Amino acid sequence: MTEMTAEVVTEVRGQVGCITLNRPKALNALSLGMVRDLMAALLAWQHDDKVLAVAIRGNGREGPFGAFCAGGDIRFLHAAGSTGNPQLEDFFTEEYALNHLIHTFGKPYIAFMDGIVMGGGMGISQGGTLRIVTERTKMAMPETAIGLFPDVGGGYFLSRCPGRVGEWLALTGDAIGAADAIDFGLADGFLPADQQAAVWDGLALQTFADGAAVQQWVASKFVAAGACAVSARGQIDHYFALDDAAAIVAALEQSDDEWARATAATLRKRSPLMLHVVLEQVRRARSMGLADDLRMERDMVRHCFYLRPDQSETVEGIRALAVDKDHSPRWNPARVEDVEPALVQSFFKSPWPAHAHPLAALR
């Protein structure tokens, strides 16, 4: 059974439900239609006894693999946020419900995280039971660069990285490779990029006793990922444990260390308001379950677009990066030192009573 849409291909091959994201020119950035196609396929397979496991990959510009998913479709978010399109609300509600389903799916979910894996791409892979990285993997949660926060459960999975790695990744948006992703608990195993096709095709040809056997067979193909590239773990844990975003930036700028200075320069380019919001998000999420984290993030994303009708940091950030491409966002406030604590806290007040929350059903 193969079902083809323009952007998502779903097919049961042997005993495995196979999903290919098929929007290569946009690096498989997720549209609302793609979120709905993914949700429909997973719901159909979740209780189908013939489907023992699910595998997901992205098509690159030169065919299968090469790009997993670059996140949500930020041009759509900009247009919808600028015009009051109600599909903006639908997108986030349905995307977060999809993220939750993947985490709680109950069958092996195997993500081939080759190439770009950012933002929403993390959302459809981090809940997987087997997260595969390659030498081409470039993983990041870069939302502070567009005046947003690491959503799709980012608070939940980043806060569970070792030490203060979660705060560092969330605030800077820095990208990491395969070995670091495994070391930080954001991936499970390494597969050379040129061996992915054989494993993918092998899933259709084997006969498996159960879902666990599918997962074990794929994991048996893993090889060593090599050395980690991030050598600043001690500094990350020191600086990103400080009380607030302004203190982190100040301490980094006062250092004589090259890594610290470069990190401070990165943070100075991010939305000052969202640096404060994101630090609060990650630290709150550390003591939250997934469903509560996703409800918190759904509250936050509503505020990102509608808290200040005169200026959404997110609409402005996307404008500067992807629409006008002037790379000169007019952040408000303009400096991390000028952000009022009351404004930060307002992002964490839910617009809905608990019974009416759009994600009230998540458990």
Automatic annotation (TrEMBL):
KW Magnesium (keyword) present: no
- Pfam short name (any one): ECH_2
Alphabetically sorted, this entry's keywords are:
Hydrolase
The residue ranges of the Enoyl-CoA hydratase/isomerase domain are 16-348
User: Highest taxon of the source?
Assistant: Bacteria
Q: Name one GO molecular function term.
A: 3-hydroxyisobutyryl-CoA hydrolase activity
Q: InterPro entries under this entry?
A: ClpP/crotonase-like_dom_sf, ECH_dom, HIBYL-CoA-H
Q: Does the keyword Hydrolase apply?
A: yes
SUPFAM superfamilies, from UniProt?
ClpP/crotonase (SSF52096)
State the Gene Ontology BP annotations.
Answer: L-valine catabolic process
Q: What protein name does the entry list?
A: Enoyl-CoA hydratase/isomerase
